[in-house]
Amino acid sequence: MIKAKKKYGQNFLIDKGVINKIIEAINPKNLDQILEIGPGLGALTSQILNKVDHIDVVEIDPDMIKILQEKLPPSKITIFPLNILEMSNDAIGKYDKVIGNLPYYISSEILLKMIKTINNQKDLHFMLQKEVAERISSSTHSKSYGRLSVMLQYFFDIELLFDIKPESFSPPPKVTSSLVRLIPKINHENTVKNIDSFEKLLKLSFSQKRKTIKNNLKPILNDSELNMLAINPQDRAEMLSLSDFVRIENYIFDKIILD
Ligand code: SAM
Fold first, then answer.
1. What number of other Cβ atoms are within 10 A of residue 73's Cβ?
2. Facing residues of 79 across strands?
3. Would you say the CB of residue 39 lies under 6 angstroms from ligand 1?
4. Per-10-residue mean pLDDT for the chain, 259 residues long?
5. 195-258 in CATH: which number?
6. To test the ligand 1 pocket, which listed residue (10, 20, 178) has its Cβ within 8 A of the most ligand atoms?
7. Can you tell me the distance from the alpha carbon of 117 to that of 194, in angstroms, rounded to the nearest whole number?
8. Is the CB of 45 under 6 A from ligand 1?
9. DSSP assignment, residue 1?
10. Residue 36 in contact with ligand 1 by CB distance below 6 A
């Protein structure tokens, strides 16, 4: 009997119906180069291998690696015994599809890392805590709209596919989960000038959610500059759209106010 390790966020999928639904959503094709993050006992991995000849996986837990090696023929699986956060961005960028029932303790960090890897990927499918899934797909005026929403929506079209109940896992997590699809945007309607300054701007804008944008951005912009950018200084950050933030970033980058 395998004991799930809390420190690695291990909740194994056991519901065959749910597993099939996830595989259907991922829609693996034989020539796809697929990377799975956190294969665990291989619930998704072995089903994907019914559709493709080979899969690459990255798994941190040596016990899981041993089980995968016993369960699946080495010709079909390449295992990187690594922390996903330490895998090189270039290496991740070569895959067509990235998938995973993510370890929830680092799901936001993994999502933010994915931004830096965008290259060949056609799509990414991740299982997340429902709360995080809602946060990254939410739009302005919603309670969950924040820094992570704007940052990820700049890079990806995000689709919330369906929810998965705790009972579909062993052990059951404390929260409901959701499957999301991320498709890298090829053409950005409006382009940021520098991604680091965009990141800093979002951090500052959402630093105190109850404060107005005027107050949060006081160190870098005054009222008349906000008005000139068609931003109401009395609005809160959650009322500003992605294109509002891109417009502000373009302006401040030109002023080279953010270092
Ligand atoms: N894919 C399996 C499933 O659906 O049943 C397991 C999913 S479980 C929620 C998360 C998996 O990620 C575990 O196998 C865990 O050991 C692995 N993991 C945790 N932290 C990791 C990290 N930093 N890098 C790579 N894998 C990690």
1. 8
2. 57
3. yes
4. 91 98 97 97 98 97 97 97 98 98 97 95 97 95 93 96 98 97 88 93 94 96 96 97 96 75
5. 1.10.8.100
6. 10
7. 16
8. no
9. -
10. no
DSSP letter for each residue of 37-99: E--TTTHHHHHHTTT-S-EEEE---HHHHHHHHHHS-TTTEEEE-S-GGGS-HHHHHT-SEEE
Give the distance (Å) from ligand 1 centre to CA of residue 28: 20
Ligand 1 touching residue 42 (CB < 6 A): no
Instruction: Quickly list DSSP for 179-198.
Output: EEEEEE-SS-SS--S-HHHH
Instruction: Write down the domain spans for the chain.
Output: 6-184, 195-258
Q: What is the pLDDT of residue 257?
A: 55
pTM of the model: 0.95
Ligand 1 contacts CB of residue 101 (under 6 A):
yes
CATH of 6-184, one of 3.40.50.20, 3.40.50.150, 1.10.620.20, 1.10.240.10: 3.40.50.150
Instruction: List the residue whose alpha carbon is closest to atom 24 of ligand 1.
Output: 83
Question: Taking the CB of residue 17, how many other CB atoms lie within 10 A of it?
Answer: 8
* Atom 5, ligand 1: residue with shortest CA distance: 12
Contact 254, 193 (CB under 8 A): yes
64 lines ligand 1 (CB under 6 A): yes
DSSP characters over 103-137: -GGGHHHHHHHHHHH-SS-SEEEEEEEHHHHHHHH
> What's the pLDDT at 190?
80
